[in-house]
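Newbie here. two chains, one complex. Structure please?
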Amino acid sequence: MTVLTAALELRGVNAGYGKVAVLHDVDLVVPERGIVALLGPNGAGKSTMLRVASGRTEPTSGAVYLRGTDVTGRSPERLARTGLCSVPEGRAVFPNLSVVDNLRMWTYRPGVKRKDVEEQAYARFPRLKERRRQLAGKLSGGEQQMLAMSRALTANPDVLLLDEISMGLAPVVTAELFALVRQIADDGTPVLLVEQFARTALEVADTVAVMSQGRIRVTGSPDEVRDSVLETYLHAHPAPPV
Amino acid sequence: MDTLLALTVAGLVTGCIYALTASGLVLTYTTSGIFNFAHGAIGMMAAYLDWQLIAWGVPVLPAFLLTVLVLSPLMGLLVERLLVRRLGNASLEVTLTVTVGLLLLLIATAQTVWDAHTARRVQPFFFGKTVTVGGVVLSYHQLIVIAAAVVVPLALWAFLRWARTGVAMRAVVDDRELAALTGASPSTVGLLGWALGSSLAGLAGVLLVSQVELNAITLTLLVINGYAAAVMGRLSNLPLTIAGGLLLGVLQSLSIQYVSIGWLNQIQTSIPMIFLFVALLVAPPTRLRVGQLAPLVAPRVPGAKRSLVAGAGFLAVAGIVTAVLPAGRVDAFTHGTAVAIILLSLVPMVGYGSMVSLCQLTFAGIGCVAMAKVGGGPLGMLVAILAPAAVGLLIALPTMRLRGLYLSLATLAFGYAMEDNFFQNPSVMGDYLGQKVPRPFGIDNPRAYLFFTAATFAVCAVGVLALRRSTYGRRLVALGDSPAGCATIGMSIRATKLGIFAGSAGLAGLGGALMGGQEGVVGYTDFPILLSLTLLLMAVVWGVRTVSGVLLAALLIEVVPMLNGHLGRIGDSVLPLLVGLGAVGLGKNQNGIVGAVLQKLPRRTPTLPLPRQHSEIDLREEVLTSAQG
């Protein structure tokens, strides 16, 4: 393995739905350590990019590398077993399964034991232990997000993809969540974080990439891009019609 | 008292079998989202395979195990791989049609391989051995059935509860995409669901077969009775489904002794369908789903001028055909054209309004009988339309809040019960000689009658197209696309739905009357529910959204049997085989064959094809992106 190997790399990715192209020649590198935040206005193509990275949408051209291996076109379940942990937008839990059953689903990565998952999850989130027999759908939004994040915590993934985890949560809970993401990253798991709200992401990220209209516009450290972010967001391109 | 107890126990045993088959149905429905209409036929096939194995000298127990644990699951696997996988998130009429096609295909296969005229019997397990429990004599076979109905659901429950794969099955039902992201394979889970479901259908079939004679249609319909139990469990709740199965068995058994309504001669056999209907009505209403986008681009609707020209052209062709046709073929073409009118009644209902009626032939039969009773004059014709329309309204009223699959099942229950109690009723059909049907307006010349039927079709077809272009037609399409959307803009769903039920039933009745007039006599077996299914299938395969599609379908229904004479016994299977293959093709093109051809033709206005298989969020993104770029 070379020193330059990235945890996750997208090279020249084009993707879309049917005849509508969404991503245009996107290059993105998630290094071995730290948090990469992907920012951009509504409809910039951030979620599509995560769909491509997690195998849910096949790129029309370009390639996806996981730890130096070409994984383009691999099914989401194979990617997940290989070590790519993707927490999709919304509450990434099974609402009609109990908390315990949800935790059971986190054990599909080879080497992840049921007992370890439960121990780690309960140790980090004691609230989940209290509610382990309850249906996940009956938990509060914050508790559901804890349950979703417990997968990232226990799976020890090669790379962690988070899609707008703060959406619809109280600010206090959001702050807690980002602290957790920071901790996961500091423990050695590379993170790709997609956010619409730039401020929180700029605080927690090591590298920031700004997208609009299916292209990556700026990449750099939070301080380098801070000024250009809002510029890109608000002025450089016409606001999307809503 | 003893009779009551004995009947209750016998009913419980039948109920156990219903419970087993219904659990299998629920299992496949929840894991794949597709209501497997062919579930009953899979059970039937298993019974035949079991008989065949025993006939080849395989001992009873190995034959039983081989059928239930290997052959039946194998059928499920094949169906999943070859059919279900292609369907993706296809519309209801397509998924229904494909599985109905499979049902007919399996029945045809069984009837071809195992000649239906030979009587075959399968002995019950431990034939002749009985025990007496509390004054009730139970055969060993019945004990085995009860044991299976206790052990299998418990094992299933334990598997779903504790095994990781079982948890994964429930997880896939909950959120397919997330399940894949955790590393569980939804496609493997789908396969497993179909294998388990088919195995349960097979178990039910094998347990049933010793109680009735081995007959493809009887067995299939018996297993279909179990659908009522599945509906009581809302197609998702296993304990309720099992309770429903037992209740149904007991009710049916008791009704044989205690229910007799003189003029409804077959009310006992219809108990499962009455049960199904009631279960549909009392179950909580399905919630309207918001934000669904119809994935289909429907074929273009011809304008007034074009449809009139096409109608005139059709009449001209019909005139020439009428004149030159050999005398022996005239009746077949008349019959085909009358069937085309019945199929035409599916176009506004299924094609425009996306309400899948499974009992269109029942309406046709009502129209036919009504005209036979009143006479062939103008009054008779009027009654042939109004009587089924009134019945259509009667069906539409209680089922007003039902949608999609549940509405279809309600029409199935109605058509099935009508077959037993109305069309096989001596006070309706007369004695075994059947009911004489006059020709409308006394047109006795076969060629003149053919032209009259063709002209009726042309007028009705132009009328259906005009209806589609009207405000009402647009409402109908809107209702099919999104009832929630209709409600939010203040459109009356009720009036639209009542109207389409009445209108479609009336049109079917007219077709039925013309068909009966050609046949001269109709009898007990002329309006079976299975034929309704075949008609729907042909219409959808050829294109139920287009008038030309249903016309072609009707002609094919008439033409293919003409080949039978040349193909021998295989000939009977040609139609179902073709239909089954067509159903497979539907997975690829959901507008049917004619719809696919029409879409290949150049259009005046370029359209943006809506991509399939992604959520509204993606669509929103895509719309925004295309608006920007």
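Moderator note: The longest strand of chain B covers residues 130-133. Chain B has two domains: 18-242, 304-335+343-535. Thread marked as resolved.
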